[in-house]
Amino acid sequence: MGVAAMLLAAGRGERMRPLTDTTPKPLLQVRGKPLMQWHLEALARGGFTNIVVNTAWLGEQIVAQFGSCFDPKPAQNKREQLPNQEQSATPVQLRYSHEGQDFGAALETAGGISRALPLLCPPHADSATTDVVWVLAGDVFAPDFAFEQTAVDRFVASGMLAHLWLVPNPEHNPRGDFGLASDAGDGLRLALNLPSGDPRPRFTYSTIGLYHQALFMPPLCDIEAGNPLGIRAALAPLLRRAMDQNQVSAELYTGRWTDVGTPQRLDQLNA
To answer: Residue 95 belongs to what H/E stretch?
Structure first.
């Protein structure tokens, strides 16, 4: 079994109201198709066809839209065509972690990943790569991002607990999230948990990353395997703890990227 991917789709989308009162944010249309479909197609082009989607708010609509198998279709017009889209893509198999049904609400990012780990990283698998998972948010538009096996192989060889793709700070997050160390000569750059007042530049987490399941286990994370109690936990504090131990690498991504967090940003994408 190859590397799985977790697509985060459980959020309420408060800032997108009233659009998200009746439609989950990952299903809002961007250039002719649901926002999360762009990610599904990109993962399929990279050969990553084992995908877990977490749901909560209006999650039944996501299941109704995509079911258990999604067959990527070629672009319908040149506006949607990407340079590598002529490559064939294998249908992706979709499984769901229904946080809303199980616990009444979304579990936040770290809590949701912990809940889905038994699906993402089978406990009796015999490959080192099955300890690794792609994580990405279903409400981000990044049509140029390529999910590649070479990135997985490099991450596994690094021994890191996470590898993040950072982007230049957008207007709505001018202070950024994490720092990025200078190249040490081996191509590996550490993500930095910079203290307030540190003058070094920060960048914004794109929400796309590779993670080792050990990040969500003791000693860094004290949530029981599979999160059976439905504990809500944010991801950033966990990442910062790992950064303080030099266990998170990162790189800067400069392709098209939009956090589709407001109706205005959605309108701009569709203009």
So the answer is: strand 92-98
